[in-house]
Amino acid sequence: xxxxxxxLLSGRPVLxxxxxxxxxxxxxxxxxxxxxxxxxTEFVNVESLLHGDRKSLRKVRLSPExxxxxxxxxxxxxxxxCEAARVxxxxxxxxxxxxxxxxxxxxxxxxxxxxxxxEPAKMVEMAARVVKSVSLPVTVKTRIGWGPESxxxxxxxxxxxxxxxxxxxxxxxxxxxxxxxxxADWRWAARAQAAVKMPVVVNGDVRTGEDAxxxxxxxxxxxxxxxxxxxxxxxxxxxxxxxxxxKPALPPPTPHERLDLLARHLxxxxxxxxxxxxxxxxRRHYAGYLAGVPGGAELxxxxxxxxxxxxxxxxxxxxxxxxxxxxx
Length: 328
Ligand SMILES: Cc1cc2nc3c(=O)[nH]c(=O)nc-3n(C[C@H](O)[C@H](O)[C@H](O)COP(=O)(O)O)c2cc1C
Hints:
By secondary structure, the protein is an alpha/beta fold. It has 16 helices and eight strands. Helix 8 (154-163) packs parallel to helix 9.
């Protein structure tokens, strides 16, 4: 494992999870500013990438400031996975991550994502080939098993994946059949980390800074990954970082801070995607930003009806002005 890769996952970093339609360049930038130690792109379909699909090409384009970021790919065919990994590597990401955890029928039903968990030997063979096809480190993100195995395959898989040269493993501590329901069982990440030397990243149900500390302490994993918790509360990264660095717990963001970040997210999304799409894409983040703002639910409903940037910014500015000094 290169020293550069080792450095990425040292110091118990808090990682932004790959999330389709969420962890785009703008959200990665905001989360990184708030303390995310490493980010992942949304997953990229290998066939679409190889066919030059515009959206897929955009996903693998990384600006120089967008670092460290890993590119995640998914597919069912080892040949195209290898080829797409080579294309993705040209963007010089921190590493290439292979998605072996997506349960969604249109993906797992076609042999990609979590479907690899149904054939662990094939998953290992495929990972071995991807490792050999690029000079960058290759990692795997998967779940504890397909479900409902009595003994989850993840521990044995971790050993075998390490043997074929993957550099790290992220364990979303649910089975594929659990989708996003039920409680993530971090004990499987602990068992996987105990079985291998490479870093294991624990993922699932980390919603607060305290959860991040607990997940790392309970599992002994090298790093912790946050998905939905970052959408609900992107400040989780700095809050977790403070606790992990032995500092006092940070106060929650003020309503002013929440409104300012919402406005910035809107402006950046519009700059990156154009007005209509940029405003629309920001909507999925309003609930998180406005959770601690007095009158946030009404404000969210209003913003959701506004298609243009300037009216949204004006409305956010007026909400900011109307905060009483105490609420601000
Ligand atoms: C909207 C959404 C999109 C997701 N997209 C991806 C993806 O592209 N690649 C991936 O590996 N996992 C994806 N996931 C799963 C997350 O990366 C993560 O493993 C899962 O949400 C569990 O972590 P959490 O409890 O912190 O959210 C997605 C999850 C959500 C909610």
